[in-house]
Design goal:
The structure is a homodimer. By secondary structure, the first copy, chain A, is of the alpha+beta class. Chain A has helices spanning 7-18, 79-88, 139-149, 205-214, 268-282, 332-341, and strands spanning 2-6, 32-38, 41-47, 51-58, 60-61, 64-65, 67-71, 73-78, 93-98, 103-108, 111-116, 134-138, 164-170, 173-179, 183-189, 199-204, 221-226, 230-235, 238-243, 262-267, 289-295, 299-306, 310-317, 320-323, 327-331, 346-351, 358-362, 368-372. In chain A, a hairpin with a 3-residue loop joins β14 (173-179) and β15 (183-189). In chain A, α1 runs antiparallel to α2. The longest helix of chain A has 15 residues, at 268-282.
């Protein structure tokens, strides 16, 4: 194997595939990145066995020569070291050559590195995913869906299925749900092009977070294909494969109240900032609990106190308060996460008494629902 | 105590004094910041008992009213919490009022915080430093001196005096030296205005690092006053007091060779980058050692190898190599620290054989000397 490549383009590719490489792997070959060179270009693969990211750099991109292939071939090189070497090389192009016994030479300007690679045939093969159950979504929409749901997955492995986001395709609609059993985030999307039949998969939160980092904010299409064990996201020249979580996702629809006793419309950003301030007093305690109380004149009061430190209260003018008076306590963190996911828009908060879960919606987008289970203090 | 203050100006002041406050203190009152309000303005003090930072915000600055004093007084408030509260308040001004039992009210817009302060008379008094042994230095020069020396102090408490920088005033010259016994950094300055008599103090590296953060890059004067136990740096409205280190600083002058056998002139930045690359192979091993060898044609080769990972070599064209051939090994980190302190200028490196310390100077400034003790590998 021998080729020359533009260093900035190789770095871009490495930047993508490095996201899948974990230093904690127990499989030595997975500390490496696989490089495969053909006349057409360079394929890079990184994996931690749960997530695999693959990117392809074409020999010629937009009329510019990126790679000059002298001899085709493949090698696995230690990922972190290879990435650091490429990053620190002195010139804008780099020559990579593999000689016998996987001895790999990296040459740039007057700088010459010799590292020992690994047998490429030992690198795990990618799962096979057929294209027949594939659907398409714009990258920016996919990114929103992830942002609005993934934060609510459970951080605890005690119920592994809750560490993922439940994606369900049913009746021409995609419904994404995440919950840690104290709060829930749900996003519904009606897609123009959905696959036939029904799907129900649970995608690890970690995979969705990595996906978010490698897709752009454009409306570029992302191809999504699923099997019973894997999901593949494909955009531009980058592919992300993720293992799916096993087990049945709980039926969350019963958690969401169908009737409400108090409805408050207000500015989400103002509410966020008041909760943020109130949580300064709350978070010293273990629970980080703030209170919300409705007052006459369409005002809500946000307050918190800590016997050791002090107390805080703040009045917020709402657009409207309809229905019964409400006094409720909840986690400041959950509330701030939910408001952040609603992106600072005007929000509608609906309560069914101090003991029942309450929900938040965006005034501008009915597709997003955030639910929070209150804490009993009153 | 009751006053109103522009929030951005209070934050600026807090930003300075917070640098002296440590969360690790064993003296509860030092987790706080002292606020003292008089007609003239607000004085803020933070301290970890080694370093004390004080700043004064005038009631009127450049014709703008910063503070409206309603009642003079003082209080100590928990530093981190107070800073966070002020940072998150909703409006551009804030009212602070202390009522009985140190109950402190912080009011901004519709937000109202109540925190419990501490007795201000319990806050330690500042050391008394007379002005008679005071000298002046421009802020940017002071910052350079710190940058060029402080990195070389010892991180180990086994010889406490080496954790500081030795400042010596003698024969109208200020000489600053830091060493961890493996390398040494020395800066000489001839100041226009030096104090009479001789000084020899050791300033903790930590204090100098904090000093660097609070002084600007301007040529604004900094007033420096010393006693046998304390040093005071005073610039604008900010004062930094630091305890001095006890004990005799070793005589380092004998460490520096007086004769050299090889002199290399070269670009410091090119050398830095080559060492940086070579250290990629070196730092996996415990020692992080790279080699430098002179070759014919005014070339030096930088190289490194690690049996497990691989090897690297790079040739650098120098301006000149005079004297004997040299092959020497040293810590990549020490070399990079020294070159960074010389600020990327052209450098002169002078060797006295592979076993003796070698020195680096800037071509542009003879006042800075960096010394490194080599490692015996040849």
């Amino acid at each position: 194997m021998k080729f020359e490549i533009m260093r900035h383009r190789l770095l871009e590719g490495l930047n993508d595939v490095m996201k899948a490489v974990s230093s904690k792997t127990t499989t030595p070959i997975l500390t490496g990145i696989k490089l495969e060179v053909t006349e057409d270009g360079l394929r890079l693969t990184g994996s931690d066995s749960d997530i695999t990211i693959q990117t392809f750099i074409k020999s010629e991109e937009n009329g510019d020569q990126m790679i000059r292939v002298i001899e085709e071939g493949s090698i696995v090189v230690q990922a972190r070291m290879f990435n650091e070497i490429i990053r620190k090389l002195p010139t804008s192009d780099v020559e990579i050559e593999v000689k016998e016994n996987y001895h790999t030479h990296i040459h740039s300007g007057k700088s010459e590195f010799h590292i020992i690679g690994l047998e490429p045939s030992e690198y795990p093969l990618l799962p096979e995913i057929q294209d027949d159950r594939q659907f398409i979504m714009p990258a920016d929409l996919l990114k929103s869906i992830v942002r609005e749901t993934v934060f609510a997955v459970s951080p605890s492995e005690s119920r592994p299925v809750l560490t993922g986001v439940h994606w369900q395709v049913k009746n021409g609609e995609l419904v994404c749900v995440a919950t840690d059993s104290h709060r829930l985030a749900r996003r519904k999307v009606i897609l123009v092009q959905l696959p036939e039949g029904e799907y129900s998969v649970v995608i690890p939160g970690k995979s969705l977070n990595e996906l978010s980092k490698i897709i752009g904010d454009s409306s570029e299409p992302v191809y999504i294909a699923m099997t019973s064990q894997q999901v593949l996201f494909k955009t531009g020249n980058v592919l992300l494969y993720s293992r799916l979580l096993e087990g049945n996702y709980p039926d969350t629809s019963r958690l969401i109240p169908t009737e409400y006793k108090t409805t408050v419309s207000m500015n989400g950003k103002v509410l966020f900032q008041a909760i943020d301030r109130a949580s300064l007093m709350a978070r010293e305690e273990r629970n980080n609990i703030v209170r919300l109380s409705s007052i006459e004149g369409n005002i809500v009061e946000i307050s918190s106190s800590s016997p050791e430190i002090g107390e805080v209260e703040e009045e917020i003018q709402t657009t409207s308060i309809e229905g019964e008076e409400i006094k409720i306590s909840f986690s400041a963190k959950y509330m701030m996460d939910a408001l952040r996911a609603l992106d600072g828009h005007d929000v509608i908060v609906q309560f069914t008494g101090a003991m029942r879960p309450f929900i938040l919606n965006s005034v501008h987008d009915e597709g997003v629902l955030q639910l929070i289970v209150p804490v009993r203090t009153y």
